[in-house]
Design goal:
By secondary structure, the protein is α/β, with parallel strands linked by helices. It has 12 helices and 7 strands. The protein has a 7-stranded mixed β-sheet with strand order 1-6-7-5-2-3-4, sandwiched between helices. A hairpin with a 2-residue loop joins strand 6 and strand 7 (218-223). Helix 3 packs antiparallel against helix 8 (160-166), helix 6 crosses helix 7 (135-152) and helix 7 (135-152) packs across helix 11 (199-207).
Length: 234
């Protein structure tokens, strides 16, 4: 493993899935300073070294909703989002070919593009249903959204209406936590991101057979569908 990255796995199941190293899904955020150019390239290099296949995903239009909820005018929010997403993609496009991915664009995705995949849309619908029917999950989604909007607004506490406007960001990401193997047609997947989800979201994801680890400040969700390692340890 690269000396720049340290993996700490929270459960034995997580360790097993990481050791299987079948697929890594790197989630990159356009609104977080953690993802410097060097960090992005290092994460892609690390993933390509340690996993059989790698995909990179960035937010879609939902990222602009976060900015508009924080008070940014729509044209400026769209402009800033497009610029930030382009900056995210460039280092990954450089790193993937170095690892032997000749068609790197086939491994670069946005949430908007993934909406064309039936497993993603089905999982997104389940997340939205859970949001409506599970109070603990709803609170966790709103709390996560609140923190995101507050950060984008320079620390100003958002209203409930602002949270409503931006919560699609979190809901659009949940399918990558709970159903990445189905979305990317793998038996297991490690989702690498930069922060730890609230307890209620962790419990929801655990119900969907998701295990957690960390990579140098980036959270790894190791998702295993029924019938694989996750079932063996019940």
């Amino acid at each position: 493993m690269s000396s720049d990255l340290l993996a700490r796995h929270c459960t034995p199941r997580c360790t097993q899935l990481v050791e299987r190293a079948e697929h890594a899904l790197l989630g990159l955020s356009p609104l977080n300073g953690y993802y410097s150019t060097r960090t992005r390239e290092t994460l892609v290099d690390w993933a390509c070294t340690h996993f059989k296949t790698v995909d990179v995903v960035v937010p879609g239009y939902e990222a602009a909703h976060t900015l508009t909820a924080a008070g940014v005018e729509v044209p400026e929010a769209v402009h800033r989002t497009r610029r930030a997403l382009n900056r995210l993609r460039v280092p990954a496009r450089r790193a993937l070919p170095r690892a032997g991915y000749r068609h790197s664009e086939q491994h670069m995705h946005t949430w908007t593009q993934l909406a064309n995949r039936a497993p993603y849309t089905a999982s997104r619908m389940r997340a939205e249903t859970a949001y409506r029917n599970a109070p603990a999950l709803r609170r966790a989604v709103r709390q996560t959204t609140r923190c995101t909007v507050q950060h984008a607004a320079g620390g100003q506490e958002p209203t409930e209406q602002q949270i409503d406007q931006a919560m699609d960001y979190v809901l659009a990401e949940l399918p990558l936590v709970t159903d990445a193997p189905a979305v990317f047609n793998t038996n297991s997947s490690v989702f690498v991101y930069h922060f730890t989800l609230p307890t209620a979201l962790i419990e929801r994801c655990s119900h969907e057979h998701v295990i957690f680890g960390r990579v140098n400040g980036s959270l790894c969700w190791c998702a295993a569908p029924c019938g694989t390692v996750a079932n063996q340890e019940r």
